[in-house]
Amino acid sequence: MPQADPPVNEEKRPLGGYLATMIAYGIVVLATTLLGSATGRALPRGMSSRELLGTALAAHKVSRLVTKGAVTAPVRAPFTRPTGEDGGPGEVSEAPRASSGLRHSIGELLSCPFCLDVWVITGFTIGHVFAPRATRLVTDAVAALAGADFLHLAYATAQQIAEGEIPLATG
């Protein structure tokens, strides 16, 4: 009789908390769909390349601001704790405070920009259905902020190269 494979990872995963956040996400999407249908909202046409890029930049910036921003640390504090590692410029590094359950799952969402992106993009998508002009204004403004961040990083890198702190690759 074949034996079951041993568990690859003995670490307990907080599946209950993940399930709760997935259910919450599903409820948000379902409620939005029902509200849109009840109010006769038509789905927007597909995004243009410009709108897609702007929304991606805006989602990137909002996710980083919420999950890594020093100024948003009080929002995360009930769910995350500092790791002691350095973040990027103006950023902090945190991890979930709880080891399991919903509090851990929320801590992961609030400390991982990749995890939070799904929620942010969903929020922008809902905005495109219910308040398209306001959503475009917000995404454009936040995308411009993300662009400014990249320019700050490029400037700092150029300054380090000019001062010889970063050698130019030759070859």
Task: Please explain how this structure is put together.
With 171 residues, the protein is mainly alpha-helical. It has six helices and two strands. The chain has helices at residues 15-38, 49-68, 73-76, 101-111, 113-130, 132-162, and strands spanning 80-86, 92-96. A two-stranded antiparallel sheet has the order 1-2. A hairpin with a 5-residue loop joins strand 1 (80-86) and strand 2. Helix 2 (49-68) crosses helix 6. The longest helix is centred in the C-terminal third of the chain and has 31 residues, at 132-162. The chain starts with 14 loop residues before the first helix and ends in a 9-residue tail after the last helix.
Give a summary of the structure in a few sentences.
The chain is mainly alpha-helical and 171 residues long. The chain is 63% helix and 7% strand.
SSE order, one letter for each helix or strand:
HHHEEHHH
Rg calculated over all Cα atoms: 21 Å
Tell me the helix content. 55-70%
Distance N to C terminus: 61 Å
Largest β sheet strand count, sense and barrel closure: 2 strands, antiparallel
Decide which structural class fits the backbone: mainly alpha
- The average pLDDT score comes to 90
Topology:
Elements: H1 15-38, H2 49-68, H3 73-76, E1 80-86, E2 92-96, H4 101-111, H5 113-130, H6 132-162
Helix pairs in contact: 1-4, 1-5, 2-5, 2-6, 4-5, 5-6
